[in-house]
Design a protein that fits this description.
The structure is a homodimer.
Chain A lengths: L3 H5 L2 H12 L2 E2 H6 L5 H13 L3 E6 L2 E6 L4 H12 L2
Antiparallel strand pairs in A: 1-3, 2-3
Chain B binds a DNA duplex through helix 3 and helix 4.
DNA sequence: TTTTTATTTCGAAAAACATCGAAATAACTC
DNA sequence: GAGTTATTTCGATGTTTTTCGAAATAAAAA
């Protein structure tokens, strides 16, 4: 099971997070932004989800992904603690 | 070539960085903190170095590793931008 | 100059990861 | 119920990563 650091070590997943910062997106909308198959994007979404970085809600057939910022606080604290000059 | 995110995705490497936050350490001192071979720790140090997260200076036979915080600014900005509620 | 100390590089093995196409699920529409 | 749409799961493949032991390098000490 990957932690938040592992989840954000992948560029595609960071781009997904950036995308979600604007507003929630459906899996399909996220797919459209990348030159990857739906299977691959779904896998990335799963990784983000299990790391607690995103939340999902179902709306009929579509699944909506949104940001779950609290989990990033841990990373933020680490970096602030360590990067503080 | 791994970026800073990739470098910090590994727990051992984050612990090394935490260690260096206190003060610079020699490779040997860092080794002593982990239940890993010198070869493995040296590899991790190499990854941190190529990501620009640490600096080295030689002092006779020993090599001293120290923190290079500026490189963490990029990550910090990303997280602040994205985790800001 | 041989030996010792500190560290890295090499080569290999095992585990983890990203990616895909195809099949499966879930919910809607006809 | 049969077909359609949105998304995930499965199984496989190639790549990257972590780790090690052994050999190599670098500088000092004997």
């Amino acid at each position: 099971m990957r932690d938040a650091w592992g989840a954000l070590s992948d560029k595609t997943r960071r781009e997904i997070i950036t995308l979600l910062k604007g507003r929630p997106h459906t899996a399909g909308e996220i797919c459209d932004q990348f030159d990857l198959t739906a299977a691959t994007v779904s896998h990335h979404l799963h990784v983000l989800k299990e790391a607690g970085l995103v939340l999902t809600t179902r709306r009929a057939q579509t699944i909506i992904y949104s940001l779950n910022s609290p989990v990033m606080q841990g990373m933020l604290s680490y970096l602030l603690g360590v990067a503080r000059k």
